[in-house]
Design goal:
Layout (H helix, E strand, L loop, with lengths): L1 E9 L4 H11 L3 E11 L2 E9 L6 H9 L5 E7 L8 H11 L4 H12 L4 E5 L6 E9 L6 E3 L9 E3 L8 H5 L2 E8 L2 E8 L5 H18 L2
Antiparallel strand pairs: 1-3, 1-4, 2-3, 5-6, 5-10, 6-7, 8-9, 9-10
Helix pairs in contact: 1-2, 3-4, 3-6, 4-6
InterPro entries: ACT-like_dom_sf, ACT_dom
Protein name: ACT domain-containing protein
Organism: Jatrophihabitans cynanchi
Amino acid sequence: MSYLMRLVLPDVPGALGAVATALGRVGADILSLDVIQRSDDGATDDLVIELPPDKLADSIVSAAASVPGVRVESIRPYAGQIDPHRELELLDALATLPGESLRVLAGGVAKVFRAGWALVLDTPAGGQSRVLARGGGAPEIDVLPVPWWPPRPARVLDASAAWVPPDWERVGTELAVAPLGAAALLVGRPALRWLPSELVRLQHLSAIAATVTAG
């Protein structure tokens, strides 16, 4: 089974190698690694890890945490595709499938950011936005209250706010929004907080995609 684990590593040479060695000792394989954010204190990395069926997720949490200075921020099962060129392929797909661009964008953004789902929301009328497209395991809703509008700048939204459907909060959904021309891109993912660097990526990707989907 595969897991997505977010680690905070100290700014110490060999820290990632020590984590890889510790994971190897419990039979885990690192399938992919994304450096999400760097700071003076260290780095935040997302690792997709394959674990043998006879091992529990606790074993890789304990293995990673056994490395001095390493903190496991979150872990969850992961069934997405492993693709280091996700953003480029998404933009290429938008250009080649203009009639399906919003649907392709919503589905692609969910994969790029390893999210549960994404919605494209229309400019609101009467305080509610119409859902123009959905991707991933997106909620089957047609309209959504948007008291937080406008979507600029890209930012995290409070998942405990009154406008949020109760089932989103129950599963620990972390919400982020970005402008998509006059529309908005709302992305939800379970138990994985949004970092500032990811919000910058989301805004840049959305801005480029807006020029394609406008047509």
